[in-house]
Design goal:
The structure is a single chain. By secondary structure, the chain is mainly α. The chain has a single domain, classed as MetI-like fold, CATH 1.10.3720. It is 78% helix and 0% strand. It contains eleven helices and no strands. Helix 1 crosses helix 11 and helix 8 packs antiparallel against helix 11.
């Protein structure tokens, strides 16, 4: 079991010595997951709001579909994105396969149901009389939506954290559509798989610790914002 301790030591060495490849992999992981999470929020927040507040015949069907999508296996997402981006696929001419953009697309598909579903849940937990009170005060539709978002800001921040967590730790789709190409599409999760397959458990543990620290720091920042808003009421 010495390789566990060696992996921990190697993690600190890679971090504090500033290994260029590890820093590049870490930055690419944060960049891809950050972009995917941000775009997922731009899609999922309005969509979740529509499903939570809207009244139309197929609303329950779409909510159930979104809830199912929250458990969508990443490898299934990777498969369908690969089919569309493959050179013989509908979007093959774009040549996005095995690029960072392909990973972003796959991660967006993974994160959008998470953000949307939690947004629906957050807004549906609000007192339904609040909307009528705001309407009675003369608030416009957009003002009502923004005020409801503000009221549900704590669970909405939790939705953001869940969306980020679902993509920063994802490996199946990233491996399938990104190809784990060095300096181009290799992120922390796919690098861990590669090092493990080579029997380099020390390096795999080192990269795993870096991934955990990265995820913790991002969620620590978001939690700080969440709890700060809570203390303000």
């Amino acid at each position: 079991m010495d390789w566990i301790w060696q992996g921990i030591q190697q993690a600190f060495q890679l971090l504090f010595q500033g290994d260029s490849e590890v820093l590049q992999i870490t930055w690419l992981s944060l960049k891809i997951s950050g972009i995917a999470t941000s775009l997922s929020l731009l899609i999922g927040l309005p969509l979740g709001t529509l499903l939570a507040l809207g009244q139309f015949p197929t609303r329950r069907f779409w909510i159930s579909l979104i809830n199912t999508g929250m458990a969508l296996p990443p490898v299934v997402v990777g498969l369908f994105v690969s089919i569309f981006l493959w050179r013989s696929g509908p979007l093959g001419d774009l040549q996005w396969m095995y690029t960072a953009l392909a990973i972003v697309i796959a991660q967006i598909i993974i994160a959008v149901p998470v953000v949307t579903g939690l947004t629906v849940s957050a807004l549906q937990q609000l007192d339904p009389r609040l909307s009528f009170q705001l309407m009675g005060l003369g608030a416009s539709r957009w003002q009502i939506i923004f005020l409801l978002w503000r009221e549900a800001r704590l669970p909405l921040l939790a939705a953001l954290m869940a969306g980020f967590g679902s993509v920063i730790s994802e490996v199946g789709a990233s491996m399938m559509v990104g190809g784990n190409l060095r300096y181009e599409t290799r992120v922390l999760t796919t690098a861990i798989v590669l090092e493990t397959s080579k029997g380099q458990f020390g390096s795999a543990i080192a990269l795993s610790l870096i991934l955990l620290v990265l995820a913790y720091l991002v969620n620590l920042f978001l939690t700080w914002i969440q709890q700060r808003n809570l203390s303000r009421g």
